[in-house]
């Protein structure tokens, strides 16, 4: 009995080319940002700080890739770590999540470590691009495949580019390197506050500079088009070569 996938690639392409719909989606996204929309959701009890569309996209990716290791830079309240570990729990096996943050707040660490899925989670505190921390990450990843990586820490061009260069070699063929908040490049500065990242200094500019130096990754444009609303335009990078 064959599985029937109701997804229609032609319709997805048409939706991506529908400029009026895309403009409506952009207006909805920017309007929702004014109310901190992404802060409205939890995953199994922990704030995840993501748009539901991107959570669903990550669910599809993890289910298809079936990674043995998911590396995440940026922990915040830990919702994404819990999400990833819950997906690995459903898949079975001994898959692990490695979370990295420059400052793991004590109250967040306590809540993550007492969660029922904590046995799948390891956390490292420090800069995601510090060489001594990267040595620990590489040691943790050794012998594990497939490996999936998500980047969601400091959103400046320089930092994200360094993350891309450091973590891309760990991503295995067929898996993904996901760069969140590339949408910063397309947002008006008044929605970004006093933080240093903004148009011209964003994860998206780092992605495009990185892609000029490698043929191992391509942007999964179909995934972005079908989401319609996403914080990661041009940020879903599929690894197509060893």
Commentary on this structure:
The structure is a single chain. The protein is 40% helix and 15% strand. The protein is an alpha/beta fold and 242 residues long. The protein has a single domain (9-239), classed as Vaccinia Virus protein VP39 (Rossmann fold, 3-Layer(aba) Sandwich), CATH 3.40.50. Helix 3 runs parallel beside helix 4 (79-91). The longest helix is centred in the N-terminal third of the chain and has 15 residues, at 19-33.
Helical content, roughly?
A: 40-55%
**Strand coverage percent:** 5-15%
In CATH, the architecture is: 3-Layer(aba) Sandwich
Strand elements, count: 9
Cα(first) to Cα(last) distance is: 33 Å
Q: What is the number of independent domains? A: 1
**The CATH topology, please?**
Rossmann fold
Going across the major beta sheet, what is the strand order? 5-4-3-6-7-9-8
Q: What does this entry show, briefly?
A:
The chain is an alpha/beta fold and 242 residues long.
Which short descriptors sum up this protein?
242 residues; alpha/beta; Rossmann fold; 7-stranded mixed β-sheet; two-stranded antiparallel ribbon; 9 strands
SSE inventory with pairings:
Elements: H1 9-17, H2 19-33, E1 42-43, E2 46-47, H3 52-65, E3 69-73, H4 79-91, E4 96-101, H5 106-113, E5 121-125, H6 131-141, E6 147-151, H7 157-167, E7 176-179, H8 203-211, E8 217-219, H9 221-227, E9 236-239
Parallel strand pairs: 3-4, 3-6, 4-5, 6-7
Antiparallel strand pairs: 1-2, 7-9, 8-9
Helix pairs in contact: 1-9, 3-4, 7-8
